[in-house]
TrEMBL record:
BP GO annotations: maturation of LSU-rRNA from tricistronic rRNA transcript (SSU-rRNA, 5.8S rRNA, LSU-rRNA)
Protein's name in the database: BOP1 N-terminal domain-containing protein
SUPFAM superfamilies per the UniProt record, alphabetical: WD40 repeat-like
Pfam families from the UniProt entry: BOP1NT, WD40
WD repeats: 407-448
GO molecular function, one term: ribonucleoprotein complex binding
The keyword Nucleus appears for this protein: yes
Biased amino acid composition, Acidic residues: 49-72
């Protein structure tokens, strides 16, 4: 069977580890076995003489007959050639049969021919390797010293340790066993391995410094690998030419060029750094190279305060304190008390020793030893560079800048205004209990309604074909027919504003029969009157014009109601209110409802009836909200003059907080088509901003303040009450507490 080279390496390492001395001669083989082998050889030689004539083999002059010990060693070396174990026969190519007695074991040439005949070939196949029994790999066996096993086999089972014999038993066993010298102990697999005759022969060859296999020729003839025939560039054995021993002219020319370049100053060398021979004896230690060479940022100790005029032995009279001042020092804290009181002496010889000299020196040492020092780098930053780079206001036109028309007629503060969908008309409600409709371009008043109580809010229907005005006054909400539109539209409006049977309020879920809303026909104003159980602060229409919401701040769980105009129905919102509601708004494109309380804004999905997002304002009290036409951005005004911009796709925290008004913000508004939004406040001003929202989600909105609109006067501590943009033009309407409505145009 062919052997693997890894076996040789393992065998050598095992012999080194076990320190086994392999004898060169098999002197312990019993005599009986030797005699039997001798008889077999004689019988073989007699049989050969009878069959064929004896053929003499050429031998060297120093050939000798092998002794019994040599025969035994030869048998151990040729164990691979025994096919049946009875006879060892060497067959030559010419058919002659020779016995082992006729072979010359002493000659290396014959032994090599035996090995060549045996056909021992080196195999690269992994099947020839004997897989180790233990599979722990490179794990040291010392780790299993205290265990009952030495590792695991290929199936994962533990390999238990065998019982070890004592030295006396092992010695007696080795004395009785004739082959004990061939056995070695494999510590890795915990078993004894008996070496075969062929392996012994390999070991002997290795000990003699020869190759393990006899068929390996270390002195094989050299094979010339170079193809000399028809070579284009044949190798030459010519002697070295003379030019290799003569200085090169080309190199000398190059050296001359470099020398001329250095003289002309074209090539400059770095000058060696000269160490300064002089140094400042009392200089700062921060510039010392020794401290900087350690790789650490050396920070010098702060220098003590230098003495001033008051510490002179003859200071000026103004530095010497009076007795009253000295007595006042005793009443001060020790850290505030001056450390040195100036005194005046006639000469320097009369100056006594300083009392605090030792104490101050000790405190100085403590400061240097215990107080950590840190280097603070001053950064010179231009304040102008901290300002955000905003586009020029000229590039952001048009936006409202100047007052164009004033609408006068109300006797009280104008609380709310609303523009019609076409932009031709504007409605206003005042605290004097009247609702007026104005023509935008001319400023004349077309209609006036007397509702009796102060009007809190007015809202025009967003559909152009339904010019219906919703007015909240006290506990009632009026749906008024403005009279605009053609005859077909008026007939449709009259049908919508007709209530055949006044609805009776139904009890709420808790069983309380308190009325929520009662739909009643208003014959006086030819509209509908919705009676609520609490005062209504605001009214907001849905984008389709059929639904509208009302807010009653003191209505508790029924504070926000949604009404349907076509069916004359009222329903509560299916959401639990957290805090007092301030205002509500519908999403411009989706079925999402915004409810603002005093602290935050909650966003609900009306179809799924669940909370979508909660916007944390972080302000003291919310006053109003406005939704961007795209619906993804919200602005919130507060009572403390802060304006918060929320990007709902970004976070529930404000994207920007603008502190622009010194007083309360009363209302905020977005323009429907232009990138503008505005805020009005009790400080009698309205701020106009540019706000661009990009479709790219990676780009934040651009907010730029544009203009401050002034013109209103304060009345009863109130300023501008409401502001609304024109639906088509970049115009802004403002309603003030001075009963004037102003239109600002670009």
């Amino acid at each position: 069977k062919p052997l693997n080279p890894s076996f040789h390496l393992w065998l050598l390492s095992s012999l080194e580890r076990m320190k086994v001395q392999v004898p060169k001669e098999d002197s312990q083989e019993p005599k009986r076995e030797k005699e039997m082998n001798q008889k077999k050889k004689e019988e073989t030689s007699n049989r050969n003489e009878e069959e064929e004539p004896q053929v003499e083999l050429p031998t060297d002059s120093d050939d000798e007959v092998l002794s019994e010990d040599d025969d035994a060693s030869r048998e151990s070396g040729s164990g691979q050639t025994e096919s049946s174990g009875d006879e060892d026969i060497i067959t030559q190519s010419d058919g002659e049969v020779l016995s082992d007695d006729d072979s010359d074991h002493g000659q290396e040439k014959e032994s090599e021919s035996d090995e060549a005949h045996e056909g021992v070939e080196e195999s690269d196949s992994s099947e020839d390797e004997v897989t180790p029994r233990n599979t722990i790999g490179e794990v040291p066996l010392e780790w299993y010293k205290d265990e009952e096993h030495i590792g695991y086999d290929i199936t994962g089972k533990k390999i238990n340790k065998k019982e070890r014999q004592d030295k006396l038993d092992s010695f007696l066993a080795s004395a009785d066993d004739s082959k004990s010298w061939r056995k070695i102990y494999d510590e890795y697999n915990d078993e004894e391995v008996e070496l075969t005759k062929h392996e012994m022969k390999l070991i002997r060859r290795l000990l003699k410094g020869k190759a393990p296999h006899a068929d390996f020729d270390p002195y094989a003839p050299y094979v010339d690998w170079f193809a000399w025939d028809d070579a284009k560039h044949p190798l030459s054995n010519a002697p070295e030419p003379k030019r290799r021993f003569i200085p090169s002219k080309w190199e000398s020319k190059k050296v001359v060029e470099y020398v001329r370049a250095i003289r002309k100053g074209l090539i400059k060398f770095d000058k060696p750094k000269e160490e300064p021979r002089l140094y400042l004896l009392w200089g700062d230690d921060s510039s010392s190279t020794e401290k900087a060479g350690h790789g650490l940022a050396y920070i010098p100790a702060p220098k003590p305060k230098l003495p001033g005029h008051e510490e002179s032995y003859s200071p000026s009279l103004e530095y010497i304190p009076t007795q009253e001042e000295i007595n006042s020092y005793q009443l001060m804290f020790e850290e505030d008390r001056p450390k040195y009181i100036p005194k005046r002496f006639t000469s320097l010889r009369s100056v006594p020793a300083y009392e605090q000299a030792v104490k101050e020196s000790f405190d100085r040492c403590l400061d240097l030893y215990l107080c950590p020092r840190a280097r603070k780098k001053r950064i010179n930053i231009d304040p102008e560079s901290l300002r955000p780079k905003l586009p020029s206001r000229k590039d952001l036109k048009p936006y409202p800048t100047t007052c164009y028309i004033e609408y006068r007629g109300h006797k009280g503060a104008v609380m709310s205004i609303s523009t019609e969908a076409s932009g031709q008309w504007i409605a206003s409600g005042s605290s004097d209990g009247t609702v007026r409709i104005w023509e935008v371009e001319t400023g004349r008043c077309l209609r006036v309604w007397e509702v009796g109580e102060a009007v809190q809010h007015v809202a025009w229907n967003p559909l152009p074909e339904l010019p219906i005005l919703a007015v909240s006054s006290g506990q009632d909400v009026y749906l008024l027919n403005t009279g605009f539109g053609n005859e077909e539209e008026q007939e449709k409006i009259k049908e919508l504003l007709h209530v055949e049977n006044p609805t009776t309020p139904a009890p709420d879920d808790s069983g309380n029969s308190t009325s929520i809303v009662c739909w009643v026909q208003d014959d006086k104003d030819k509209g509908i009157r919705l009676k609520h159980f609490k005062s209504v602060s605001s009214v907001e229409w849905h984008r389709k014009g059929d639904y509208f919401s009302t807010v009653m701040p003191s209505g508790e769980s029924r504070a926000i109601l949604i009404h349907q105009l076509s069916k004359k129905l009222t329903q509560r919102t299916p959401f639990k209110l957290h805090g007092l509601p301030v205002s509500s708004a519908f999403h411009p494109t989706r079925s999402i409802f915004f409810v603002s309380t005093k602290k935050n804004v909650r966003v609900y999905d009306l179809l799924k009836q669940k909370l979508v997002k909660k916007l944390e304002t972080g302000v003291r009290e919310v006053s109003s909200i406005a939704i961007h036409p795209d619906g993804d951005n919200v602005i919130v005004g507060s009572r403390e003059g802060k304006l918060c911009w929320f990007d709902m796709d970004l976070s529930s925290q404000p994207y920007r907080i603008l502190k622009c008004h010194p007083k309360d913000i009363t209302n905020v508004a977005f323009h429907r088509s232009y990138p503008l939004f505005a805020s009005c406040s009790d400080d009698c001003t309205a701020y106009v901003f540019h706000g661009t929202v990009y479709s790219d989600l990676n780009q934040n909105p651009l907010i730029v303040p544009l203009e401050i609109l002034r013109g209103h006067t304060s009345a009863n501590g109130r300023g501008v009450m409401d502001c609304k943009f024109h639906p088509r033009q970049p115009w802004l309407f403002t309603a003030g507490a001075d009963s004037v409505i102003k239109l600002y145009c670009h």
